Amino acid sequence: MQVDEFDVKILTLLQENGRLTNQELSDLVGLSPSQCSRRRIALEQGQLILGYHARLAPRALQQEIVAMIEVKLQSHEQQKVASFVDFIQSETPILDAYKTTGEADYSLKAVVSDLDSLNALVNRIFTTHAIAHIKTSVVLDRVKENGINA
């Protein structure tokens, strides 16, 4: 899909505030509301807009502990990697997962209610898969998240 400067402006504005109406977008972008609506729909259908989400405070769901977990697998056999990815996708506490270069194969962001829950998650990762190494860091403060200053 080809994007122009108007599409980039629409994407940037929606990333900052996904609740903008077509009228508000049109005022900010300089296009008519109907043009903004057509462009937004095209960006959604083109998979450039993947969804709209509410940004919640950690205490909203009583999950105030954020942990960054680096995982190194013992084996990169296709079946074992697929099993690990399925596990990651089924674990509700894991919000984000990235396959990475460097010492870790995967970098995970998890949100849990307490240290016991974090310990249980790390134990599930260790005991259900062939893991060579796990490094867990607890987040002390959110400085910038999802491109937004905390």
From TrEMBL:
InterPro entries: AsnC-type_HTH_dom (IPR000485), Dimeric_a/b-barrel (IPR011008), Tscrpt_reg_AsnC-like (IPR019888), Tscrpt_reg_AsnC/Lrp_C (IPR019887), WH-like_DNA-bd_sf (IPR036388), WH_DNA-bd_sf (IPR036390). Pfam families: AsnC_trans_reg, HTH_AsnC-type. Keywords: DNA-binding, Transcription, Transcription regulation. One of its GO terms (cellular component) is cytosol. SUPFAM superfamilies: Dimeric alpha+beta barrel, Winged helix' DNA-binding domain. One of its GO terms (molecular function) is sequence-specific DNA binding. PROSITE patterns: HTH_ASNC_2. Residues 3-64 form the HTH asnC-type domain. One of its GO terms (biological process) is response to amino acid. This is DNA-binding transcriptional regulator, Lrp family. It comes from Vibrio xiamenensis.
